[in-house]
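Please review this one:
***
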Amino acid sequence: MKRTVSILLGVVILALCIPGAALAANETQATTTVTYTVEDGYIINIPSSIDLNNSTCLEITASRMNTPGYIWVSIDTSRTAITNNAMSLQDGSGHSLSCTLTVGDADGSGNVRGISNTDYRVAIFEPNSLTPTDYGKLYFSVDDSSAEVGTYTGTLYFLIRQ
């Protein structure tokens, strides 16, 4: 009995896997409905981490940008301390390093500026543009000339607004 049920179940699953076709025996016309949905909203891609020993540039991009207005990405300075264009990296033992932040254009055009408490934008997206029209690359520079040996970390908090 189990074998018969298993065979019947297999035949049903196989039949469901075969795509349906419009059969048109002796017909001179047939139709196919084509559907595509464009979703609204945006998806901003900000890497969750960066190892400054391997790369000093964090790139902010979009994978969907169907919005009527601009999208602004900025550092949340209420949660990320920025002083003199720099954030502090800590090693967990009370030692810290200063990490200077600068922002540049995604196209590499050379428009580079520092990050401060008054100008903390890191990417600006126009409607329907997956590449930032202003900024988009965040650069890090660490002066470790007087640092203690260890691994130093810090957290950047971002705001994404329309």
